[in-house]
Amino acid sequence: MSAESEIRDNGPEGMEPDGIIESNWSEIVDSFDEMVLHETLLRGIYAYGFEKPSAIQQRAIIPCIKGYDVIAQAQSGTGKTATFAISILQQIDVELKGTQALVLAPTRELAQQIQKVVLALGDYMGASCYACIGGTNIRSESSPHHH
């Protein structure tokens, strides 16, 4: 595949990307098991209801974990949030209690949705996640949200 290759891929059922996927990353991973993720993270992924990675997850999780800069643009419902959540959860050390990742979201609703996804996927790991939202009472932000 060339550095700026374009391929057409329908991905798993119900997760078809709309149109063309542009990528300079040639590795496509067909299953979560092949991604060599932490066992507790895999349990969270399957418990969340994922069976097979979506087209965007097949291409973006590994480069994210490896520390590459990744820009993933796709329609709603294609698995973008889970892509970066899985990548973050794979890299954190739950024994360290300090902040290890920061996700910025443009709306309160999206921030809360991201928090729910991270907590669900990281449930078996014991991961913590806080949604810090401007304009809210500090007390509501300071209580830990932990599964």
Order of helix and strand elements from N to C terminus? EEHHHHH
How much helicity do the residues have? 25-40%
What's the N-to-C terminus distance? Answer: 42 Å
- Fraction in beta strands: 5-15%
Major pleated sheet: 2 strands, antiparallel
Catalytic activity: ATP + H2O = ADP + phosphate + H(+)
EC number: 3.6.4.13
Domain DEAD-box RNA helicase Q: 30-58
GO molecular function, one term: hydrolase activity
What would you say this structure looks like, in words?
By secondary structure, the protein is mainly α. 35% of the residues lie in helices and 5% in strands. Strands 1-2 form a two-stranded antiparallel sheet. The termini are far apart.
Mind sketching the topology for me?
Elements: E1 5-8, E2 20-23, H1 39-47, H2 55-65, H3 80-91, H4 108-121, H5 138-142
Antiparallel strand pairs: 1-2
Helix pairs in contact: 2-3, 3-4
